[in-house]
Amino acid sequence: MNAIYAAFFAFVAGAFTGCAASIVYRLAIVRLAKTAFIQYVRPVFGRPSTLPPVERSDVGRLIHRVLKDQEDRCERYSAARLPRLGQKAPACYEMIGRCIGLLDAFSSCAWKCSGGDHILERLVIRANNSARGALRLGLMGFYDESLTLARSVGEIANLLSLFSERRELFDRWKTLDERTRRREFSPVKVREALEQVGTPIRVSTSAYGELSSRAVHVNPDTSPQTFDAQGRPKGASYYQEAGLMVCLNELAQALTFVTYASAQLSHLETDYKRRLFKAGRDLIINTGRIGIENIQERWAELEKKRAEVEAAAQ
Ligand SMILES: [Zn+2]
């Protein structure tokens, strides 16, 4: 029996020592990488300096190591903050995960292979991949980039939403040549068609425009990762509560419609369709109101309240 205890103790001690050694090793690597990064770019913040004449052959890899470490830390921090962001945000995150899991099962024929051309499945895989990317980027503090991908999910959501209402258009979309398809089914044409059909539209024209100008295209007012009341532009991987919430909500809305439309268009048995509808419904119920279209109004409201409080205090 003593031998068993000794073996168990040795195992635990070994695991602990191994963990500790691994952490120490990781910290040492990051420290080395940071030193190489600083030596290479020489940040001087206004003081006179010259760049070093010699550079390490692996400095690029080490710079990426530092950036990856920063991204990982932001992702862990976002995940730790989420449960404290009210009721909807953590539930929204939970439901996004469920929808992604169900869409993955559907699109990979894990429940049933319906045969045929698998075009619907491929569109869902594309949307799901973008959704996974958007979620990860949002957690890592790449909010603009997350929204760019959410916009892509929204485009597929709109297309599938239209096809679920007008099945004949899905057949037409499949058979058109590339040029005609782009003309007839451009994102703006799809939004117009959805407006005529009268179904709930995921990416409205105004939201699409806002997503495009804030997250996709550049203009003289471009201000990256600006999700704070002060409106300061930043690099990526800095946690911003509003940024995370906007990303979750924008992604959730797009993903809900992909989930609904997929269930409608699929040839799945009723139980599986019900599961998809339920996940989509739970997601939209837990989607918050703060989004790309109204975040500026929210900041203005907060600023007004702050000014009122300060005026009352004087
Ligand atoms: Zn299949």
Describe this protein's structure.
- The protein has 12 helices and no strands.
- It has 314 residues and is mostly helical.
- The protein has 2 domains: 2-65, no CATH class; 88-310, no CATH class.
- It starts with a helix and ends with a helix.
- 31% of the residues are buried.
- The model has no long low-confidence stretch (mean pLDDT 88).
- Bound molecules: zinc ion (ZN).
- The site of zinc ion (ZN) has 3 residues, from loops.
Protein topology:
Elements: H1 2-41, H2 59-81, H3 88-107, H4 119-139, H5 143-165, H6 167-175, H7 178-184, H8 187-197, H9 205-216, H10 241-265, H11 270-285, H12 295-313
Which features would summarize this protein structure in a list?
314 residues; mainly alpha; 12 helices; binds zinc ion
Question: Brief description of this entry?
Answer:
The protein is mostly helical and 314 residues long. It has helices at residues 2-41, 59-81, 88-107, 119-139, 143-165, 167-175, 178-184, 187-197, 205-216, 241-265, 270-285, 295-313.
